[in-house]
């Protein structure tokens, strides 16, 4: 392989990953070819060629009814395989099951991935529960929801502010999350030792999460419960926070910093 061929291959891969990121950012609504061309800066022919290849490999899917591209099923397979083995998911699986049995609520495990918080595992309650991440593998910008707040609040302040600046455009989709309101939530989370949403983001859905702190790695994720907001009262809040902190206190010392870095981009 010539040097130029190698460079062209790397450039093509970079463009493909960029398009995957853009489609992921578009969420369930998907993204049109025109939107992806505008956002990526690629010309229509190049963009269309790469998208077709990603569709062929099931990394993207194209819905004919609206001509939009969405993430493909192959990514679910990759995500499931990546989550297996050592790391947060394996360590916390028994805790997630215990929490579901003890509370009857949906238990969720989140990990940090750069400027996002990703759901790497969840044990659902008996009733359908809408969440910000949607399902395992779903991501939200750090700052959105209790699971991500519990992570963001325990990063260094300089790092926090840099992440918030990069995420501001995405967070603006939530009018209740003004810069001032979010700063207040971060301070409250730091003081309390847990993050809570009484139902402001998804009407009728509440959530509580605590940070997962690992020696030598800092905050690497969060453990939380999602439930119907009418169930939230001071007694329930106190009980759920205690259960979550108890699980984290027992498991976090057993986690290797190396394992957490393999499972999330710290």
Task: Please provide a written account of the structure.
- The structure is a single chain.
- With 266 residues, this protein is α+β, with helices and mostly antiparallel strands.
- It folds into two domains: 3-72, Arc Repressor Mutant, subunit A; 84-263, 2-Layer Sandwich (Beta-Lactamase).
- It has helices spanning 3-26, 33-40, 44-56, 73-83, 88-103, 146-152, 157-171, 179-192, 234-251, 257-263; strands at residues 31-32, 60-63, 68-71, 106-113, 116-123, 139-141, 195-202, 205-214, 218-228.
- The strands form two sheets. It has a six-stranded antiparallel β-sheet with strand order 6-5-4-9-8-7, sandwiched between helices.
- A hairpin with a 2-residue loop joins β7 and β8 (205-214).
- α1 (3-26) crosses α3 (44-56) and α5 packs antiparallel against α9.
- The radius of gyration is 20 Å and the shape is globular.
- Residues 260-266 have low confidence and may be disordered.
């Amino acid at each position: 392989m010539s040097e130029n061929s190698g460079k062209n291959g790397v450039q093509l891969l970079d463009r493909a990953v960029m398009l995957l990121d853009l489609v992921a950012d578009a969420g369930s609504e998907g993204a049109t070819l025109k939107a992806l061309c505008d956002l990526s800066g690629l010309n229509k022919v190049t963009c269309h060629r790469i998208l077709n290849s990603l569709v062929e490999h099931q990394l993207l899917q194209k819905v004919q009814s609206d001509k939009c591209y969405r993430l493909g099923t192959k990514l679910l397979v990759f995500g499931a395989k990546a989550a297996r083995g050592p790391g947060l998911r394996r360590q916390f699986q028994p805790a997630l099951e215990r929490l579901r049995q003890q509370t009857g609520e949906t238990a969720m495990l989140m990990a940090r991935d750069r400027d996002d918080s990703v759901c790497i595992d969840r044990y659902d309650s008996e009733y359908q529960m809408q969440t910000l991440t949607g399902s395992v593998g779903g991501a939200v910008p750090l700052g959105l929801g209790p699971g991500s707040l519990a992570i963001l609040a325990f990063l260094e302040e300089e790092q926090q502010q840099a992440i918030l600046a990069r995420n501001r455009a995405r967070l603006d989709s939530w009018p209740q999350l003004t810069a001032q309101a979010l700063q207040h939530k971060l301070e409250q989370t730091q003081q309390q030792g847990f993050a809570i949403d009484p139902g402001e983001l998804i009407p009728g859905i509440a959530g509580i999460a605590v940070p997962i702190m690992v020696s030598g790695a800092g905050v690497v994720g969060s453990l939380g419960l999602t439930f119907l907001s009418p169930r939230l009262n001071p007694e329930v809040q106190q009980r759920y926070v205690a259960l979550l902190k108890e699980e984290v206190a027992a498991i976090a010392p057993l986690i290797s910093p190396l394992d957490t870095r393999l499972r999330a981009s710290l």
